Amino acid sequence: MKRLFLFSLLTSGILLASEAKQIHIVSTTDLHGYLQAKKTDANLDIGGVDTMLGFFNIAKQADPETLFLDSGDTFQGTIISNSSDGAPVVRWMDHVGYLAAAIGNHEFDFGPGNGFISVQKPGQDPVGALKARVAQAKFKFLAANICEPAHDPAQCKNPENFQPASFTKSYLLKTIHGIKLGIIGLSTLETPDKTLSSNVTHLKFMPLAKTVERFASELRKQGVKYIVVIIHDGEAAIKKMLDQLSPETRAMIPVILGGHTHEHANTTHKGVQILITGNYGEAFGYTTLELDKKLKTKSSQTIYFCHQVFSSTQSCIDGSGAIQPAQFLGKIVKPDSSASGILKEDIAKAEAVSSKVVGRLASSLFRTETSGESSLGNFMADAFRMCKDSACKEHADIAFLNNGAIRSASIKAGPVNYGQIFEVMPFDNVHVELMLSGKQIHDLLTLWYYHREDIRNPQMSGLQVTYLLNPKKPRVLHNETGESKVLLDPIKSIQFSNGNVFEESKTYRVVLNNFLASGGGGTAFILNSLKPKPKFFYSRKLRDQLVDYFALKPSGWDYGKVRQRVYYH
User: Fold this and answer.
1) Which are the contacts of 517, defined by CB distance < 8 A and separation ≥ 6?
2) What are the tens digits of pLDDT across the range 1-28?
3) How would you class 377 by CB atoms within 10 Å of its CB: exposed for 0-12, middle for 13-18, buried for 19 or more?
4) pLDDT tens-digit profile of 332-357?
5) Contact criterion met (CB below 8 Å) for 415 and 362
6) Between helices 128-136 and 87-96, what is the axis angle to 10°?
7) Rounded to whole angstroms, how far apart are CA atoms 208 and 189?
8) I want to staple 496 with a disulfide (CB 3.0 to 4.6 A). Which of 71, 269, 500, 561 is the partner?
9) pLDDT confidence tier of residue 39, bands split at 50, 70 and 90
């Protein structure tokens, strides 16, 4: 009798495991325009739109209602994408059948578009390029936490009742296998400091948790029980947001798909699955949600875009032995050339530009992962300081470069082509000159030290700086609008690399990129108040200065023995 009673419970009102409803999600993030395959250290291909689509086709065959979602930073980073303000990436995503993408900070990098990275003429729209991609896409760009104060200044002060930006949507509703699902998109609060700030000064980025609470409440009123969040932010920010959400709202969210930090994460926090799958089109996430009383994450994994793998590891990253076709969901992965077919002209144009040899290196250049001095950073900073042409008629005394401007991890010794230079510096940053006192330079170094890891120790040329590991002496920083702030002084000493004495009372010619000169990377307190304003050379791309620097040493630069510039005491 007990057995019969148990059987009746299992078959009336409670779904058997074999009958449980499932939602499958394919997720990507931080593609940065990487539509073409790259070689791994093991010399096998990784990524590329044909291989990506090969995996995605299998997912669609297994479940035609598979959701394709992206967590932002889709455009910025390659010649093929940047040359058309990201249009090829959107064309490919439409071909795949993406449903939605969060708006990342680098979606604002192209500014008005058509060659203008920031407003330079009356009537230009600082988000014109992004709006063009929004209009082009069949999928939806989501950013629930972006507000436009110009429409109503007061409303952007109220997270519970603001009007989201006009160029994007806050959420989507989608019914999958009978399950009504809400999809909310979010942008990182770091956006104003992680793109050209002038492109987003008219926008306000609202608190993440309060935004989710506001739209979760709105979705509940529409009968939605479950929400998937796509957010352009990393694990730490996601966990902080989850800590601030109400239990009722957290219970609605089975999974959050993140990005921004280029990390890999697959963890659970407060009962919510967090999945982040790296960058540059190297991997994707495959998540299965299952409804059994409640929609929960059944499985969540990161899968690399390898269509060939080593038999010993089933990976193209490393391994040994025979090379064999990769498998996904029990099927052999077959690259689908229809993907590259729709990009044929874009790929041909990009390859013609990228293959041009611009110089040589006598030793390989490397960058550090987050902050700190590097041979690649030294090389780039020197190239910017030594600029001498019609735009910059004499060498500067000092050059600074934020670590975040260096995107590629290395350039190998030997011939260097333009494509490698582009990978190192995909941003269309321009040359900026300004005259700063020694005191202002000291103050900038102090601000950077306390800002955050990716700018804490900027790459520099012309100076040698010794930082204190345990600063104790207060320093009062002033700007030209009369404001002041007090910080512990982290600088033990500053001197010029050529042995000249650095004096706080003297004025020096300083060069940096327009990201820093516009107040990015923590410079706003000092640089946004300067009179006269910094001189921007919009016709002079810093990437071009790298090319010119190669020409100064045809035999190849050797930065393996460069004198150290940053010290700690």
Assistant:
1) 432, 434, 523, 527, 534, 536
2) 333 333 333 333 333 334 579 999 999 9
3) buried
4) 999 999 999 999 999 999 999 999 99
5) no
6) 20
7) 8
8) 500
9) very high
For residue 360, give Cα distances in angstroms to 174, 539, 546.
Answer: 53, 25, 12
The first and second tokens of residue 362, run together, are: 């006598």
Contacts of 557 (CB under 8 A, 6+ apart): 359, 360, 361, 362, 363, 379, 549, 550
pLDDT over 90 at 317, yes or no: yes
Alpha helices in 331-393 (DSSP H): 338-341, 344-354, 375-385
DSSP conformational letter for 161? S
- Measure Cα distances from 438 to 44, 382, 531, 569 in Å: 50, 20, 16, 21
Q: What is the CA radius of gyration of the chain?
A: 25
Largest CA distance in the chain: 95
CA distances from 35 to 222, 407, 491, 532, 534 (A): 38, 16, 43, 43, 36
* Main-chain dihedrals φ then ψ at residue 495, nearest 5 degrees: -145, 160
* Distance, CA of 211 to CA of 229 (rounded, Å): 12
The letter for the amino acid at 566 is: V
SS3 544: helix
Cα 288–292–295 angle (5° rounding)?
50
Kindly tell me the number of DSSP H helices and DSSP E strands found in the chain: 17, 34
Structure tokens at 96: 């795949």
* DSSP state for residue 279 in the 8-state scheme: S
Q: Is the dihedral of CA 140, 146, 152, 155 positive or negative?
A: positive
The Cα–Cα gap between 373 and 376 comes to: 9
Q: How far is CA 113 from the centre of its chain?
A: 19
CA distance 305 to 28: 11
β-pairing, 323-325 vs 308-310, is: antiparallel
CA angle 524/116/431 to nearest 5° reads: 50
Q: Cα(153)–Cα(529) distance, rounded to whole angstroms?
A: 24
The span from the CA of 127 to the CA of 167, in Å, is 9
182, 224 in Cβ contact below 8 A?
Answer: yes
Helix (H, G, I), strand (E, B) or coil at 24: strand
- Tell me the sheet residues that pair with 357: 417
Query: Read out DSSP for 187-226?
Result: E-TTHHHHS-GGGTTT-EE--HHHHHHHHHHHHHHTT--E
Rounded Cα distance between 8 and 18, Å, is 16
How far is residue 78's CA from residue 478's CA, in Å, rounded to a whole number? 40
Structure tokens at 320: 């040994």
Task: Pick left, alpha or beta for residue 118 (phi over 0 → left; psi -120 to 50 → alpha; otherwise beta).
Answer: beta
The Cα–Cα gap between 155 and 160 comes to: 9
Tell me the pLDDT tens digit for each residue of 517-554. Answer: 888 888 888 988 888 777 777 667 888 889 989 988 99
The residue whose two tokens read 């590629």 is: 408
**In angstroms, rounded to a whole number, what is the distance separating the alpha carbons of residues 482 and 529?**
9
Between CA 263 and CA 161 the distance in angstroms is 33
